[in-house]
Each structure stands twice: as C-alpha cells, then as structure tokens.
Amino acid sequence: MAISKVLIASIIVSLLVLHLVEADELTASTNVSQSTYVPRSGCTEACALRCRLASREKMCKRACGTCCYRCSCVPPGTSGNQALCPCYYNMTTHGGRRKCP
Distance between CA 52 and CA 32 in Å, rounded? Predict the structure, then answer.
C-alpha cells in the first residue's frame, strides 16, 4: 500500500514538472518569434548577420535585403528558422524556389 502511494505521488510530480517544462518552451518560442521583427532601417545589419557564413555572401545579402524590406522580418541565425517569419518563408522566385536565404 505504501509503495503505491509513493508511486502515485511521483507520477503526479513528474507530470507537473513535464507540464512546466512544456509551458516554458512555449513561452521561449513565442519570445523568439516576436524578436524577429526588424525595422526597414535595420535590414542591412540583420542581413549581414544572416549571410555572414554564406558562400555567396553578396547575393545572399541582396536577396535577404529584399525579403527583409518586404516582410520587416529576418529569421535568427545564419540559416533555417524561416518558419519564425512566415512572410519571409513563403516568398518564392518566379521559378517557385524559396527566395529568401
């Protein structure tokens, strides 16, 4: 009987901790997506950071600048994370490929 009470208590505590971790991750991802907004005057700096490791840095900056100017948003990091900025992510070229690096 004592073992079952301890087991039930540990399961409840584990579920509570899991719930708190999930809530913290949700809050953190919301803060990241809100921080991707870039005023048009800041596009040059944001694109320089995004394209600093690109093999064709000049072309990357040009495409990123166009996307930033239209969307007022640049995803964080040097690649990926495009889903944090839906306008940036969904912009395509005439050939149907993703425009924004």
Answer: 20
